[in-house]
Specification:
The complex is a heterodimer of chains A (335) and B (320). Chain A is an all-alpha fold. Helix content of chain A is 73%, strand content 2%. Chain A has 15 helices and 4 strands. In chain A, the strands form 2 sheets. Chain A has a two-stranded antiparallel ribbon with strand order 1-4. Chain A has a two-stranded antiparallel sheet with strand order 2-3. Chain A starts with a helix and ends in a 13-residue tail after the last helix. In chain B, helix 3 runs parallel beside helix 8 and helix 9 packs across helix 11. In chain B, 77% of the residues lie in helices and 2% in strands. Chain B is built from 15 helices and 4 strands. Chain B has a domain of 200 residues. Chain B has 320 residues and is mainly α. A two-stranded antiparallel ribbon of chain B has the order 1-4. In chain B, strands 2-3 form a two-stranded antiparallel ribbon. Classes of the chains: A mainly alpha (335), B mainly alpha (320).
Chain lengths: 335, 320
């Protein structure tokens, strides 16, 4: 029990996640059904991969607007190459392309000293263009073998394969960020880049690595999406995903200034967004209202993270008001 | 010769623009015809107006992702106001909506301490949703009165009205930024907001005004768009305008860190984007390669501008 309280104090986002789950389960009887839960997990895992990659970049103080385009490129590469080649080759090529886009982002940011938003705006435009060139701006159907669709449809022990892959990726990411030297250096770079450099951290390679990881994750999401839609498409695929991924990380408590945030937060943020759109659909709420509610939720979440001192002041004032006269303010120095 | 080179580095924007126009004229004989030039100017005006507002916000070190949604909702509001037959509200209501969204942006950034990217991302989503809810997700088709149609189709002394508005807004904003205290405060905040605060600048209020100004200009662009389309499109209008506007501003050399750059940068940036798009159309370049080149143009422009800050270039300029 004490352990549980510790975890919740450490990660209040888990409590919010649970609260949302309970509210939705009460609001809609279909929400808690096993097949619906499976559905949510399968849906969320794609955005989840993108959000995980985005977390690495944001933690190091950057941002990546190109993930939606990378995702579209991955769907195009795997479908185009499967016309003549085995899909394993296409999968590898798509992943390689994702990493390549990330490295280009990283080089633009570190060597050319571009602002992250500008650097990834460049690749956002050009990478989508390259995907359009490869696919002739046409949707590509019928090239993928049936086995490939297992990437989205297969279930292991009742859990959808994409969700299992996402879970593994999240565990590895969390482990990497918290228990390896390189992971800690990512936090260091995001927290104070100059201090990290003076402490001997190779800032440039850390940054390039985070963008490469982000590109890789976006490509994985693209591969799963290609299996789910059984097609590849360059013009509309992945539009706006960069903003959803940033929103997931921000709801999870990640600061865009870098150095603050956890993988648990990002995973929770992803699940909150996924549960919300699922529950709203079940309840028959207008999707346009969904945008408004998600926006307001994001505002409340981020405003409460960025105004901790204000909240603390309000709380202590409330405590003082509640305490009997002469009891002393909580937190006052002990005699 | 050296003096020319120094001028070029000091006025990189206009040098790039001049070079581009010469190159375009050589590549395509159709480019330098009056009709085509007016086309370029008219097409560049909408994004240009938005980019001017974006430039003001970016000079404070902020960013505004909500401009596309503001343009969409302002068009939808204009269309529904004229459906109700009210010519005063037709003009006033969309502008008020733009001001209101800018105000919320500014308050979230300054009073709630949200990062500008997140605050305006929220408003981008919320305002787009609000526009769709307001019109029930359907476009509103209207027949606008003549004075309102004129803001997109009319001519003033042979120049399209949107272009006249674009130029007038740029000159006015340049005047504000260059000669009014408000403008000087904007630069002071963008260079060092703590220093500005300690010098007695009301940082919060100036930033809020910057976001309001940006929202107002986005609403004006949305009104021109709805006047041209003869409909209010809450879902389709203004999508990705924020990215186009940011591209125009950074092509013009304004830094995302704030404090550096001129509103003429946004003006030239919008024209450069417009000229390149026009040239590609004249030459019949595929849509796919146009998309690839969009990124490369931003890359080239930002890279050229980064040379201005290069140590060796600066030394060389100082020696001239």
């Amino acid at each position: 029990m004490g352990r549980l309280i510790y975890v919740i104090r450490q990660y209040p986002i888990l409590l919010i996640l649970a609260a949302f789950a309970v509210v939705f389960a009460l609001a809609s009887p279909d929400f808690g059904r096993p097949d619906n839960i499976t559905n949510i997990l399968r849906q969320s895992s794609m955005l989840g991969f993108v959000a995980l990659g985005m977390s690495f970049v944001i933690l190091a103080g950057g941002i990546d607007l190109s993930v939606g385009s990378t995702l579209a490129l991955a769907t195009v590469i795997v479908t185009v190459m499967s016309r003549t080649l085995p899909p394993a080759l296409g999968i590898n090529a798509a992943l390689f392309a994702g990493v390549a886009v990330g490295v280009i982002n990283g080089v633009l940011v570190t060597r050319f000293r571009f602002q992250p938003i500008i650097a990834t705006l460049v690749t956002m435009a050009s990478v989508r263009g390259i995907a359009m060139v490869f696919s002739n701006s046409q949707a590509i159907f019928g090239t993928l073998p049936n086995d490939y669709f297992l990437l989205s449809d297969a279930e292991l022990a009742g859990l959808p394969l994409p969700a299992i892959l996402f879970g593994i990726a999240a565990l590895l990411s969390g482990f990497y960020l918290h228990f390896t030297r390189h992971g800690r250096e990512i936090y260091q770079v995001g927290g104070n880049e100059e201090a990290a450099r003076l402490a001997g951290v190779d800032v440039e390679s850390i940054k390039i690595t985070t963008y490469a990881i982000c590109g890789f994750m976006a490509a994985v999401a693209g591969l799963i999406l290609a299996a789910r839609t059984q097609s590849g498409e360059a013009v509309r695929t992945g539009l706006g995903w960069e903003l959803n991924a940033i929103a997931a990380a921000a709801i999870g408590g990640m600061s865009l200034m870098g150095g603050v945030g956890t993988i648990i937060g990002t995973v929770s943020g992803t699940l909150i967004i996924g549960m919300m759109s699922n529950a709203f659909n079940l309840l028959g709420i207008d999707p346009n209202w969904q945008r408004i509610v998600v926006g307001v939720l994001l505002a409340v979440a981020v405003a409460s993270y960025s105004n901790q001192d204000l909240l603390r002041a309000l709380r202590s004032r409330a405590n003082r008001a509640a305490a009997p006269p002469g009891a002393g303010a909580p937190g006052a120095p002990a005699e | 010769m050296k003096r020319v080179a120094v001028w070029v580095i000091g006025n990189m924007n206009f040098a790039i623009l001049a070079l581009l126009i010469v190159a375009a004229a050589i590549i395509s004989s159709d480019f330098l015809t009056p009709g085509n030039l007016l086309n370029v100017l008219r097409a560049a005006s909408l994004i240009g107006i938005v980019a001017v507002g974006m430039n003001v916000v970016m000079l404070t070190g902020g960013i505004d992702l909500s401009v596309g949604s503001v343009a969409a909702i302002s068009g939808a509001v204009a269309a529904s106001m004229w459906s109700a037959g009210d010519p005063v509200l037709l003009v006033a209501a969309p502008l008020l909506v733009g001001v209101a969204v800018g105000l919320v942006n500014g308050v979230m950034v300054t009073r709630l301490h949200l990062q500008p990217f997140i605050a305006t991302l929220i408003m981008m989503t919320v305002v787009r949703g609000a526009g769709l809810v307001y019109t029930n997700g359907q476009p509103i088709y209207v027949v606008y009165p003549d004075f309102f149609t004129a803001i997109s189709n009319g001519y003033l002394l042979g120049v399209p009205v949107p272009t006249v508005m674009f130029l007038a807004i740029t000159v006015f904003t340049w005047y504000l930024l260059r000669f009014r205290p408000f403008g000087r405060y904007i630069y002071a905040i963008g260079s060092n907001s703590t220093a500005a605060f300690l010098s007695g600048v009301n940082v919060g209020r100036i930033k809020i005004i910057a976001y309001v100004y940006c929202g107002l200009l986005a609403a004006i662009a949305g009104m021109v768009l709805t006047s041209r389309m003869k409909s209010g499109e809450p879902g389709q209008a203004g999508v990705f305008w924020e990215l186009d506007a940011i591209a125009a501003v950074v092509i013009g050399g304004t830094s995302l860190m704030g404090g550096k750059g001129s509103v003429w940068g946004a003006f030239v940036g919008a024209l450069i984007i417009g000229i390149v798009a026009n040239l590609f159309n004249l030459l019949g370049v595929d849509l796919e390669w146009q998309q690839v080149s969009r990124g490369l143009i931003i890359f080239l422009a930002v890279w050229i501008h980064s040379l201005e800050g290069n140590e060796r270039v600066r030394m060389w300029r100082a020696s001239a």
